[in-house]
Amino acid sequence: MTEPVRSPPLWEAVLGRIRELILSGELGAGSKLVETDLAERFGTSRGPIREAVRELVREGLVVEFDRRGNVVSTLTARDLAEVYGVREALEVAAARSAATRADDGALDALEQSLIAFEEGTADGYLANSVHDLAFHRGLVALAGNARMSVIYGQMLTQTAHLLRTAAEGNPTLQTAIRPSAHRDILGALRRRDADAAREAIEAHYRYAEERLFPGLSQ
User: I need a surface site. Which of 3, 16, 134, 179 has the fewest CB within 10 A?
Assistant: First the structure.
């Protein structure tokens, strides 16, 4: 019995392109997503566009209004508090698991994202944030919980949008952010100290929130 491998659905490719446009800032907060315009831009019918936008709504990058249609989300300080609250809780749970189950090889792999982050600090935080988010994604992956990773991935997508929005209102985010908190988290995991990892994660989020809140509307 054959089981042919099929290409991903067209709407998923469209989803990736629209997501890139949002996270790059080309489609800024408040931009309206018009199906006919997007279909013409990507050379598709409106069906794949509709499916992609529906997924973006689920991810929190797009908001659906009854009369205005679909627009790129304008994320606020409240959104930051909610997204970071979920991220922090998931990371603490993941660290508790990782402190007992992650082997040295997995922690070495996690450190590679941290090294990339440390080496890129001169570029400013926003440009270097991809390595920061990769470190946190890797931390959660250490728990070996696929559902947790899916939920966390959605939070990281919203975080990337939040970072760009915050940077527009707070230019200091373009400067380097201290990487020591990441070292504290990794060090605690290498010592198999779940309590120290939790404390390092909590301290990191308090510091991050202090930097991000001034750049977001309430």
Answer: 3
* pLDDT value of position 194: 96
Helix (H) or strand (E) holding 36: helix 35-42
Three-state SS for 109-167 is HHHHHHHHHHHCHHHCHHHHHHHHHHHHHHHHHCCCCHHHHHHHHHHHHHHHHHHHHHH
Residue of 166, 134, 129, 172 lying closest to 153 (CA atoms): 134
Q: Which run of H or of E encompasses 180? A: helix 180-190
The answer to whether 125 touches 175, Cβ cutoff 8 Å, is: yes
Taking only Cα atoms into account, the Rg of the chain, rounded to an integer number of angstroms, comes to 19
15 contacts: CB under 8 Å, gap ≥ 6 = 51, 52, 55, 56
Q: What domains can you pick out in the chain, each with its CATH number?
A: 10-72 (1.10.10.10), 77-215 (1.20.120.530)
What Å distances lie between residue 101 and 106, 144, 201, CA to CA? Answer: 10, 9, 18
Which of these, 176, 173, 154, 178, lies nearest to 163 by C-alpha position?
173
- Going 187 to 191 to 194 to 196, the CA torsion angle's sign is negative
* Residue 32, strand partner residues: 71
Q: What is the pLDDT of residue 3?
A: 56
Residue 63 predicted with pLDDT over 60? yes
